[in-house]
Amino acid sequence: MVILLVGMTAMAVLIAAVLPLASAETQRDKEEELIFRGLQYAEGCRLFKVRYGRYPNALKEMHEMRPRTIRKLWKDPITNSLDWGIITATTGAPLPGQLPGGAPPGGSQKPGFSPSPAPTPSPTPGFGAPPGATPIGPILGVYSKSTKKSYKVYQGRDTYADWRFDQQTFLGPSGAPGPGGPNRPPGPGVVN
After folding, report:
1. How far is CA 47 from the centre of its chain?
2. Domain that holds residue 58
3. How far is CA 128 from CA 37, 54, 122, in A?
4. Distance separating alpha carbons of residues 89 and 10, to the nearest angstrom
5. Does residue 60 carry a pLDDT above 50?
6. Residue 70: what pLDDT?
7. Sorting pLDDT into bands at 50, 70 and 90, what band is 133?
8. pTM over 0.85
């Protein structure tokens, strides 16, 4: 009976030690999947621009217009939903430490700061916002809406909501090849 009790205690200790490792491994797999899916959307937006001369006004537009520029509408693996944060030409995406409107916490911008005019979105019939609503604008990329800390540091950021997947993922701020550069692997498969 004592041997059985000692054996069960040892097994409980081993299980308690292995469970956090398994959980961390699952989270790392989700992070890798987030990067893959985010890059699929970024490449889909880039390819849409090449094919149609403009960026898409909705994520579903990349999948529903023929020829497609993305294989499928991917879920955010961290939040397990199709509700991605959208990086647009008109609003951009909040930078780390900023509110969703783009202003720093406290509400004011730097003195002398004058944002450049944003391009006007051109809606596609049947896509984007419902009739009468303001379209969200040309979509340049996506980001996760999860504010959790990540295990992996991606592009110098350790919060999922700060990971950006847009053309700047492939090109640096000057337009020169950045992470991924011109020798990046081929983009998403295109299904006609």
Report:
1. 17
2. 12-98+122-170
3. 21, 14, 10
4. 58
5. yes
6. 94
7. very low
8. no
Say if residues 143 and 38 touch (Cβ distance below 8 Å): yes
Beta-strand runs (E) in the chain: 85-88, 139-143, 149-154, 157-159
- In this predicted structure, the answer to whether residue 42 has a pLDDT above a threshold of 50 is yes
CA geometry: angle 63, 68, 47, nearest 5 deg: 105
Interstrand relation of 149-154 and 85-88 (parallel, antiparallel or unpaired): unpaired
Tokens of 108: 């004011």
Q: Which pLDDT belongs to residue 95?
A: 52
- Domain assignment present for 184: no
Spatial distance between the Cα atoms of 170 and 140, rounded to a whole number of angstroms:
12
Instruction: Give residue 19's Cα distance to chain centre.
Output: 28
Is 73 part of any domain?
yes
Provide the terminal-to-terminal Cα distance of the chain, rounded to the nearest Å: 67
Task: Please give the tally of structural domains in the chain.
Answer: 1
On average, the pLDDT of the chain sits at 75
Name the residue with higher pLDDT: 80 or 125.
80
**Per the domain annotation, does 151 fall within a domain?**
yes
82-156-146 Cα angle (round to 5): 25
| 164 domain-assigned | yes
Q: What is the dihedral of CA 49, 80, 28, 58, to 10 degrees?
A: 10
pLDDT in tens, 141-156: 999 999 999 999 998 9
Contact 167, 46 (CB under 8 A): yes
